[in-house]
Amino acid sequence: SCPEGYTMRFGICYKAFDTRKSFFHATAACGEDGGTLAMPRDAETNAFLISLYKSVSDKERDFLFGLHDQRKEGSFEWVDGSALGTYNSWYPGEPDNHWGEDCVRYRRSFGDKWNDVICDWQSGFIC
Fold first, then answer.
1. What are the C-type lectin domain coordinates in residue numbering (predicted)?
2. Residue 2 included in any domain
């Protein structure tokens, strides 16, 4: 079973938080519930996470998830240390590392596609 407020999908519990936090603080918040930032490794999970955050926020809020290239620029990895792999949903022209962006979010104004963002930028997030 999942912690309160979480939804199970493919055996994993997820929750979208309509609270603005940095990647670091979002990671800590997920950890308090015994989890990590969400890792949409396939199209089905990606679509589910988009519907999940739209259910908690009707605003143009962007949502962080568990992908970054903080260790090596351009080498994206999930928060569990595994490589990005073959699936991605980048917006055309992303990731662009504009201003040294090492973390990743869903960007509403980009049609919910992935966009790299400065890790200190505060967004909603998905555990």
1. 9-127
2. no
Question: pLDDT of 24-75, one tens digit each?
Answer: 999 999 999 999 999 999 999 999 999 999 999 988 889 999 999 999 999 9
Number of domains in the chain: 1
Residue 27 host element (H or E): helix 23-32
- Residue 33, domain CATH: 3.10.100.10
